[in-house]
Automatic annotation (TrEMBL):
<dbReference type="Pfam" id="PF00563">
    <property type="entry name" value="EAL"/>
</dbReference>
<feature type="domain" description="GGDEF">
    <location>
        <begin position="207"/>
        <end position="339"/>
    </location>
</feature>
<dbReference type="Pfam" id="PF00990">
    <property type="entry name" value="GGDEF"/>
</dbReference>
<dbReference type="InterPro" id="IPR029016">
    <property type="entry name" value="GAF-like_dom_sf"/>
</dbReference>
<feature type="domain" description="EAL">
    <location>
        <begin position="348"/>
        <end position="603"/>
    </location>
</feature>
<dbReference type="Pfam" id="PF13185">
    <property type="entry name" value="GAF_2"/>
</dbReference>
<dbReference type="InterPro" id="IPR001633">
    <property type="entry name" value="EAL_dom"/>
</dbReference>
<dbReference type="InterPro" id="IPR043128">
    <property type="entry name" value="Rev_trsase/Diguanyl_cyclase"/>
</dbReference>
<dbReference type="InterPro" id="IPR052155">
    <property type="entry name" value="Biofilm_reg_signaling"/>
</dbReference>
<dbReference type="InterPro" id="IPR000160">
    <property type="entry name" value="GGDEF_dom"/>
</dbReference>
<dbReference type="InterPro" id="IPR035919">
    <property type="entry name" value="EAL_sf"/>
</dbReference>
<protein>
    <submittedName>
        <fullName>Predicted signal transduction protein containing a membrane domain, an EAL and a GGDEF domain</fullName>
    </submittedName>
</protein>
<dbReference type="InterPro" id="IPR029787">
    <property type="entry name" value="Nucleotide_cyclase"/>
</dbReference>
<dbReference type="InterPro" id="IPR003018">
    <property type="entry name" value="GAF"/>
</dbReference>
Length: 620
């Protein structure tokens, strides 16, 4: 139904006023549909000026063309190739009406292709804002049409409304851009970053979400010596470089020389850390600034967050804390957030990444735990315990990396390093006349035990350092023995031929090795510390320890108690017949030179055992 043209303008004004950036295209199309009906024409179009690419870009049309090829050849019409109608529109700033047959190049002719007559009538009005043409609104009738002046007036009025809408949306987008971006670099700002992180951390979004907090090392000298303009320039170039290196990420500048990169893919802490290292390496390249070649390394703090669990500000704070750690560590490095959860996985990844490289370096070392005869105080053995001096995490105990070594095929290499280093050191002590009757105990991982060539390498190492097999004892955890009993039995028999002693470590800790004990060539049982710690107060533990003592007697095995921490435990052990022990009551693990000193002294005072208990009946 046709309405009066005044009503048409009012209706269009109402509809366009409510349009937003998100709905503008849809609303425009609806308005075009109404106008096509109103003017009784065949087609309509709305195009915007894009000055960057110097072209008219199609925003909406009605009716939609069918069978549009991809890419749509009409989507973008460059100024240079534009139809005369568009050119006229631009120049006149007034509505243009073309009623007759159009030149063959004509866009309108193409639109009417397939129609026999080939003649069209076009009325188009420029969208004018602040004196400049910013778009065009046009209507096409296939065939001749006469445009009344009031229709042209209406067209002009509607074009003005479209121009307003376009200008308003452009202003809104500009405002939004300014609200979300940093003006020095054009990167996102803190507010946009927080909004983005909140979205990424929403429950059931894919995770983990990695956050890399970048802090330029030593920017201040650039500002101080080259001036703030140079400093700003440097930051801008640096921002471009981050963009080039981390394109697929949300990148924000939080002011100063602090940037945040949030990879758009969810990624594990391991992947994120590898990414952070790559990024750090790429960003370190030199830049020319004011005639100077400048290299600025960057410290990176990494934190990962779990959707539905972490919130954006906490995640950002953790990354910020981590970057402080990286800076404190001297800069030019990646530090991982110390949040407990993310710490564990990041830590694991770091270990995986670096253990391999560190096995042959100075980073690994051995401490020794003396084993003492509680009756005499004599030091009868030294157990080698591996440690890893890690550049970021400090001195690591084996529990934090042995498991990882075992799951990444590094256990063999690590074990061999321990074996060689322990034997080398022990043989030096021996050469100094120390520890002649003591035994060196070396822990062997279950993986090593079933590795081909293991027995051979043990034999070679012992020979290389001139040691006799009987002075070496390999400790194997109970769990390993049970895991692959056939292979283990064979390997242990071969080891006995080499002459080394064999101990079952952590004995009693829950894996039923008992049934196999008879068939395995074992010399020593080490009572698991878990049964020893509370001896003297825990009757249940005492019952187990007594059973183990009985077992050792039955099989003719030696016994050592681990984890003796109190005089009560030591006394209880002695009372029931176990007189060899290790534990913090006697000594903590000590460096090699301290162990050598202990062996040289041959015995240690045991003042806490001043009144030795009397042996109970049946004790060894
Ligand atoms: P483990 O063989 O049972 O070694 C004894 C562990 O108990 C040592 O911990 C020692 O420091 C600790 N310990 C000794 N006395 C006490 C005590 O009175 N109280 C407490 N709370 N702890 C005590 P460490 O050095 O952290 O070693 C842990 C485990 O790592 C070892 O347990 C052993 O299974 C493994 N390990 C150590 N070095 C090596 C190695 O070179 N190769 C392999 N495969 N495993 C190793
Ligand atoms: Ca051990
Ligand atoms: Ca143990």
């Amino acid at each position: 139904m046709r309405r009066s043209l005044d009503l048409v303008v009012t209706s269009v004004a109402t509809q366009l006023m409510e349009a937003t950036a998100a709905t503008a295209t849809q609303v425009s199309e609806a308005v075009l549909a109404q106008l096509v009906e109103q003017f009784d024409v065949d087609a309509s179009f709305l195009r915007h000026h894009d000055n960057d690419i110097r072209a008219w870009v199609l925003v909406a049309e009605w009716p939609r063309r069918t069978n549009v090829p991809d890419p749509d050849p009409q989507a973008v019409i460059h100024f240079t190739s534009a139809d005369p109608v568009l050119t006229q529109c631009e120049q006149s700033r007034k509505p243009v009406v073309v009623g007759a047959e159009l030149p063959s190049r004509s866009l309108w002719r193409r639109m009417s292709a397939g129609r026999q007559d080939g003649a069209s009538s076009v009325a188009a009005a420029p969208l004018v804002s602040r004196g400049a043409t910013i778009g065009v609104l046009g209507f096409v009738k296939f065939g001749a049409r006469r445009w009344k002046q009031e229709e042209i007036n209406t067209l002009e009025a509607v074009a003005a409304l479209f121009a307003q809408l376009q200008a308003r949306i452009a202003a809104e987008e500009k405002l939004r851009y300014l609200a979300e971006h940093d003006d020095l670099t054009g990167l996102y700002n803190r507010r946009a970053l927080i909004a983005h992180l909140s979205e990424r951390l929403a429950p059931s979004s894919p995770g983990p979400v990695a956050v890399l907090y970048l802090d330029l090392d030593r920017l201040k000298p650039i500002n101080d010596y080259l001036g703030h303009t140079a400093g700003d320039w440097f930051i801008r170039v640096f921002a471009q470089r981050i963009r080039a290196c981390a394109g697929q990420s949300m990148i924000a500048r939080l002011g100063g020389d602090e940037f945040v990169v949030v990879p758009d893919q969810s990624m594990s802490a391991a992947t994120a850390e590898a990414f952070a290292r790559r990024l750090g390496a790429m960003l370190r390249e030199r830049l020319a600034i004011g005639g100077h070649m400048i290299t600025r390394s960057v410290s990176i703090g990494l934190a990962t967050g779990t959707p539905g669990r972490d919130n954006s500000t906490d995640l950002l704070r953790r990354a910020d804390e981590a970057v402080l750690t990286a800076k404190r560590g001297g800069g030019n490095q990646v530090a991982v957030s110390t949040d407990d959860m993310s710490l564990k996985s990041a830590f694991r990844n770091d270990i995986e990444l670096h253990l391999q490289g560190d096995i042959d370096s100075e980073a690994l070392l051995l401490h020794y735990l003396p084993e003492v005869d509680l009756w005499t105080g004599a030091i009868v053995a030294a157990e080698a315990l591996v440690r890893w001096r890690h550049p970021i995490w400090g001195l690591l105990l084996p529990d934090s990396f042995i498991g990882i070594a075992e799951s990444t095929n590094l256990a063999g290499e690590l074990g061999q390093w321990v074996m060689r280093s322990a034997c080398a050191e022990f043989s030096r002590w021996r050469a100094n006349g120390v520890g002649q009757s003591a035994v060196l105990r070396i822990n062997v991982s279950p993986v090593q035990l079933i590795t081909r060539g293991f027995v051979r390498s043990v034999a070679d190492t012992i020979e290389e350092f001139g040691l006799d097999g009987a002075s070496i004892c390999l400790e194997i955890t109970e769990r390993a023995v049970v895991h692959d009993i056939e292979t283990t039995r064979n390997t242990l028999h071969e080891l006995k031929e080499v002459g080394v002693q064999i101990a079952i470590d952590d004995f009693g800790s829950g894996y039923a090795v008992l049934s196999h004990l008879k068939s395995l060539p074992v010399d020593i049982l080490k009572i698991d510390a878990g049964f020893v710690r509370d001896l003297g107060t825990n009757a249940g533990d005492l019952a187990i320890v007594r059973a183990i003592i009985g077992l050792a007697e039955a099989f003719g095995l030696q016994l050592v108690a681990e984890g003796v921490e109190t005089p009560a435990a030591a006394q209880t052990l002695m009372q029931h017949g176990c007189h060899r022990a290790q534990g913090f009551l006697l000594s903590k693990p000590v460096p090699g030179n301290a162990m050598e000193a202990l062996l040289a002294a041959r015995w240690m005072p045991l003042p806490f055992l001043a009144d030795r208990p009397t042996l109970s009946a049946g004790a060894v």
